[in-house]
Amino acid sequence: MKKLPSLLICALLMISGCSSPSPSAPNDTAALTPGVYQGSAMGFHDQIQVEVEVSESQILSVHVTDHAETRFVADLAIEQLPEDIVEQQSITVDTYSGCTVSSNAVLSAVRDALSQAGDLSLFEKETQPQEIKEQTLQTDVVVVGGGIAGLSAAITARENGAEVILLEKLDRVGGSTVISGGILYATGTYVNKQQDNDPQALADYWQQRAEGHADDAMLRIAAEGSAQTVAKLNEWGVQFADTVGASGTSPALRAHYATNEEAGGQATDGVDFIVPLLHHAEELGITIMTSTAATELIQQDSAVTGVKAQSEDTHYTIQADAVILASGGYDLSQEKMADYSAEMAGSWAISSPGNTGDGLAMAQAVGAQTEFTGGVIGFKIIDISRHYIEGVNLLGWIGALGVSDQGTRFGNESADYPIFCTSMINARKAGAQKFYLILDSTTESMAALAEEAVEKHLGFKADSLASLAEAAGIDQDAFLKTVETYNAHAEAQEADEYGKTNLAAVAQGPFYAVEIKPATLGTIGGLVLSEQAEVLNEQGEAIPGLYAAGEIANSQFFYKEYPASGSSISISATFGRIAGEQAAALAQ
Question: What is the pTM of this model?
Answer without folding.
Answer: 0.89
